[in-house]
Amino acid sequence: MKKKFTIVAVLLLIAAVTLTFAACGTPDSDTAEAAKSYINIKINPEIDLVASEDNTVEAVYAANEDAEILLSDTDLIGLDVEDAVEQIVDMATEAGYIDEESEDNEVVIGVVEDEDAEEEQDEDESGLKNRLMERVRNFFQNNGINGVVSEATLEQYAEQAAALDVSMGKMKMILRALELNPDLDINELGDMEMKDLVSILKEEAQLGRDCTLRDELNEQRSALNEKYARMYELRGEIEALEEQLDNYEGDESEKELLEAQLESLENELDVLEDAYEEEWDAIKEEHQQNEEALREQRQEQKHQRIEEHQQNRVRQSNAEKQGNAGNNTGNEDAQGHAGNNLGNRGTQSNAGNNLNGSSQENAGNSRGKSNR
After folding, report:
1. Are 144 and 100 in contact (CB under 8 A)?
2. Residue 55: left (phi > 0), alpha (psi -120 to 50), or beta?
3. 202 pLDDT higher than 60
4. Which of 108, 147, 298, 351 could be joined to 72 by an S-S link, Cβ 3.0–4.6 Å?
5. Cα(244)–Cα(111) distance, integer angstroms
6. What is the pLDDT of residue 200?
7. Residue range 368-372: mean pLDDT, rounded
8. Neighbours of 130 (CB within 10 A)
9. Which among 289, 250, 291, 245 is positioned nearest to 265, based on CA atoms?
10. CA 171, CA 129: separation in Å to the nearest integer?
């Protein structure tokens, strides 16, 4: 029953997420291409992007509080993923997460695509991961920033990946999906094709992009699923009854009874699904309102952080100027002292010459008197 429960939960999530799409400025679902790539960017802010086949950003998730602050007044949906990554790095620089004066800046980029692309991207210089890394390197170079751009290492997922018999990149995506929605089943996620797993990450990120309120949303969702446990039981009963009818070879009157039973179960399910959707929509709406309030708070934090960073740069610049001015003054004083010393030595030399001349004159006078 747990397996049927989880599958239905995922299907309901995908079906119900339309309201959130509109709120997040997501491309129209009829025209948007299927999600293909999962991109993770770590600076100190950590941000997930989900991109379509044509590398358009379809979903964004702020994985920590710094990321919430950084993204508070920015919408990356619809951008080319390369432009989005550069914009993230640019904003991180403006807000001081990347320090122009530091030697320790690092941006870590991880890209997971479908299995074929994942095997090819390491060797393909034009692959998405390599293009993103090169884009950030160029940003550093063009802005005179000392820093390194690194590829995300996935060794920490090796043991879990081996146990589930999936790639380490897929394991990372599975763990993120479970973080976003603990009601998902790890084994079902492991059996999914990569594109389906990316789609789940997309739907979950679009449901709410800020991690701070995520636990509250998940608790509400879990409570709702428990409340409507009968809905999931009905789905299992209906599926079993439909299979029985498909293979039925018995008496026609008995078959009619089974069909009547099926109709009754379907009617009961319709009532529960309508009630579930109404409550789930109310939860999502409340969550969106809470996110908007949080986003306003994060915007204030971002503006304050940018202002503090700018003030620190001004203070640092002024300190450097004062230091240079002090050095110049010191050099001028030293040169003045050197000149004075030279002048003193010249005076002393003249005095010595005068003394020598007087001595010589006196000696000559003495010799003249002696001769006389």
Report:
1. yes
2. left
3. yes
4. 298
5. 45
6. 93
7. 40
8. 17
9. 245
10. 18
CA Rg value for the chain: 37
- 351 token code pair: 């005095």
| 16 contacts 280 by C-beta, under 8 angstroms | yes
What is the spatial distance between Cα 143 and Cα 136, in angstroms, rounded to a whole number? Answer: 11
**pTM reported for the whole predicted model:** 0.73
Q: Give the whole-angstrom CA distance, residue 252 versus residue 248.
A: 9
Tokens (6 digits) for 291: 């996110």
96: left (phi over 0), alpha (psi -120 to 50) or beta: left
Residue 7, CB half-sphere, CA atoms under 13 Å: how many? 13
The CA–CA distances, whole Å, from 341 to 334, 347, 349, 350 equal 10, 10, 12, 14
Neighbours of 348 (CB within 10 A): 10
In this structure, how many other beta carbons lie within 10 angstroms of the beta carbon of residue 81? 24
Confidence check: pLDDT of 224 > 50: yes
Q: Quick one: DSSP state of residue 33?
A: P
